[in-house]
Each structure stands twice: as structure tokens, then as C-alpha cells.
Design brief:
Blueprint (H helix, E strand, L loop, with lengths): L13 E3 L4 E5 L2 H12 L11 H9 L7 E6 L2 E9 L7 E7 L8 H15 L4 E7 L3 H9 L3 E7 L7 E8 L3
Parallel strand pairs: 5-6
Antiparallel strand pairs: 1-2, 2-3, 3-4, 4-5, 6-8, 7-8
Helix pairs in contact: 1-2
């Protein structure tokens, strides 16, 4: 929930996250790149989500849920989808960085940027969910101050849980 008078986060077409990382609204041709990228990595690969299904998702125009290309040194290297106002703050629906670009701090910088934008909008929380088997993602979010708040059994597939994580912001 944004407070009256606070800036509305995530409404611009372009953001500079750092000197080497920028976010731009996902162009139609990039939706296909994002679909192929995500289909090859967990959790989507394990759930057998196709590149076509993901491309359709990334192509959708959903008010309050912008889709951004993550560019590192000008090159498409990932995708970010945010629900800008979920439960008193943004929900990171998708944060995916190409394997070749992982481990170089881009994900951490994007999370710091989301945090700063949410704080500027006077949000109380930042939310994300990750599959129980996606230990790399869970560890990544926990290292960045997210805390597990709920397990959601069989949300996407029987026998698998999704883990809801929250980062409480000091406002």
C-alpha cells in the first residue's frame, strides 16, 4: 500500500539500477527471449513450463505488473516481473538472470533497487515466493533479508510446496 503523496513505484519505462544494469519495459521480441531463458531454468524447467507458455505470460499487459528486461552492459540478460502493490508492498513474481550472468551481483543489485523503490513509496514489505526445491533461490532471498512466512502446499504441483518470503521494510 503506497501512502498518499508517496511516489508510485515501477511506473517508468526505463530505470538505471547501477552503472552497468538497467531495466526497460520488455519489448515484444524480448518476451520470446525471456520465455526461452526461463524455460531452461528452475522452477520452470522442473514444472515443465514451455517457452511458449512463458512467452505468452511475458507478453501480457497486466496493469500494476510491469515486465522489465534486465540489461547488463546493454545486453538482455534477464527478466523481472513485479506486482507493484500486493500486500502493502511489491511482490516479485519473476526474477531470472541468465546463467552466464549469475554470480556477478546483478540479482543483488536488482533486489537493492526494488527495496529502495519500495521504501520511497512507503511500502511496508517486499514479497517473493520460491519453490521448495529451488534452494539456490531460497538461499539468495534469505541472504538479502527475506524471511520465510508460509509454506503453500501443492500450489503449482502435487507433492511440491511454494515458500512465501517477506522482507519487512522499516518505514
Amino acid at each position: 500500500m503506497a501512502i498518499t503523496g508517496a511516489p508510485t513505484p515501477f511506473t517508468q519505462a526505463h530505470y538505471r539500477v547501477s552503472p552497468t544494469i538497467e531495466l526497460t519495459l520488455l519489448a515484444p521480441f524480448e518476451a520470446g527471449q525471456a520465455g526461452v531463458l526461463c524455460a531452461s531454468m528452475d522452477p520452470w524447467a522442473r514444472y515443465r513450463t514451455t517457452a511458449g507458455e512463458l512467452t505468452a505470460f511475458f507478453s501480457r499487459n497486466e496493469p500494476g505488473a510491469p515486465r522489465f528486461a534486465i540489461r547488463i552492459k546493454g545486453q538482455f540478460e534477464g527478466v523481472l516481473v513485479l506486482k507493484s502493490n500486493w500486500l502493502a508492498g511489491p511482490y516479485i513474481q519473476t526474477l531470472a538472470i541468465a546463467r552466464i550472468a549469475q554470480g556477478q551481483g546483478a540479482g543483488s543489485q536488482v533486489l537493492s533497487w526494488i527495496d529502495a523503490q519500495a521504501r520511497a513509496a512507503q511500502a511496508r514489505n517486499v514479497w517473493v515466493a520460491a519453490s521448495d526445491f529451488n534452494t539456490l533461490a531460497l538461499g539468495f532471498y534469505e541472504r538479502h533479508g527475506f524471511v520465510r512466512v508460509a509454506d503453500i502446499p501443492a500450489l503449482l504441483q502435487d507433492g511440491r510446496d511454494e515458500v512465501l518470503l517477506r522482507k519487512r521494510l522499516s518505514v
